Amino acid sequence: METFESFGELSTSGENFKNYELLTFDNGEMLLIKFKPQLDNEEELKIVNVIRIPDDMKELFKPQK
Q1: What is the C-alpha separation between 20 and 49, in angstroms, rounded?
Q2: Beta bridge partners of 13
Q3: In what order do the strands lie in the sheet with 30-35?
Q4: Is 4 left (phi over 0), alpha (psi -120 to 50) or beta?
Q5: pTM for this entry
Q6: For residues 35 and 47, is the Cβ–Cβ distance under 8 A?
Q7: What is the DSSP track for 1-59?
Q8: Could you say which of 16, 24, 31, 32 has the lowest number of CB atoms within 10 Å?
Protein backbone atom coordinates (compact mmCIF):
# COMPACT_ATOMS: atom_id res chain seq x y z
CA MET A 1 0.00 0.00 0.00
CA GLU A 2 2.86 2.35 0.82
CA THR A 3 4.31 1.95 -2.68
CA PHE A 4 0.93 2.74 -4.25
CA GLU A 5 0.50 5.84 -2.06
CA SER A 6 3.91 7.13 -3.14
CA PHE A 7 2.57 7.44 -6.70
CA GLY A 8 0.33 10.26 -5.44
CA GLU A 9 3.45 12.41 -5.21
CA LEU A 10 3.97 12.24 -8.97
CA SER A 11 2.87 15.30 -10.87
CA THR A 12 2.76 15.81 -14.61
CA SER A 13 1.19 18.26 -17.00
CA GLY A 14 -1.11 15.54 -18.34
CA GLU A 15 -1.91 11.89 -18.28
CA ASN A 16 -2.43 9.16 -20.82
CA PHE A 17 -4.75 6.21 -20.26
CA LYS A 18 -4.40 2.93 -22.13
CA ASN A 19 -6.68 -0.08 -21.82
CA TYR A 20 -5.19 -3.57 -21.73
CA GLU A 21 -6.59 -7.01 -20.99
CA LEU A 22 -4.51 -10.07 -20.13
CA LEU A 23 -5.71 -13.39 -21.52
CA THR A 24 -4.30 -16.45 -19.76
CA PHE A 25 -4.89 -19.86 -21.33
CA ASP A 26 -4.96 -23.28 -19.62
CA ASN A 27 -1.73 -24.22 -21.42
CA GLY A 28 0.12 -21.29 -19.77
CA GLU A 29 0.16 -19.00 -22.81
CA MET A 30 -0.52 -15.32 -22.12
CA LEU A 31 -1.62 -12.59 -24.50
CA LEU A 32 -1.73 -8.89 -23.68
CA ILE A 33 -4.51 -7.20 -25.67
CA LYS A 34 -4.39 -3.42 -26.19
CA PHE A 35 -7.69 -1.70 -26.97
CA LYS A 36 -8.42 1.59 -28.73
CA PRO A 37 -9.96 4.12 -26.33
CA GLN A 38 -13.73 3.74 -26.55
CA LEU A 39 -15.71 6.84 -27.49
CA ASP A 40 -19.12 7.49 -25.92
CA ASN A 41 -20.93 6.68 -29.17
CA GLU A 42 -19.07 3.39 -29.77
CA GLU A 43 -20.57 0.10 -28.63
CA GLU A 44 -17.69 -2.21 -29.55
CA LEU A 45 -14.12 -2.36 -28.34
CA LYS A 46 -11.46 -2.32 -31.05
CA ILE A 47 -8.18 -4.18 -30.69
CA VAL A 48 -5.07 -2.16 -31.49
CA ASN A 49 -2.38 -4.75 -30.73
CA VAL A 50 -1.90 -8.28 -29.42
CA ILE A 51 1.36 -9.14 -27.67
CA ARG A 52 2.38 -12.70 -26.79
CA ILE A 53 4.01 -12.65 -23.37
CA PRO A 54 7.42 -14.40 -23.50
CA ASP A 55 7.99 -17.19 -20.98
CA ASP A 56 10.63 -15.19 -19.10
CA MET A 57 8.14 -12.31 -18.53
CA LYS A 58 5.08 -14.33 -17.41
CA GLU A 59 6.08 -14.15 -13.75
CA LEU A 60 5.41 -10.38 -13.84
CA PHE A 61 1.75 -11.01 -14.70
CA LYS A 62 1.01 -13.74 -12.15
CA PRO A 63 -1.05 -12.72 -9.09
CA GLN A 64 0.94 -12.10 -5.92
CA LYS A 65 0.22 -14.46 -3.03
Answers
A1: 9
A2: none
A3: 19-24, 30-35, 47-52
A4: alpha
A5: 0.68
A6: yes
A7: -HHHHHGGG---S-----EEEEEE-TTS-EEEEEEPPPPTT--S--EEEEEEPPGGGGG
A8: 16
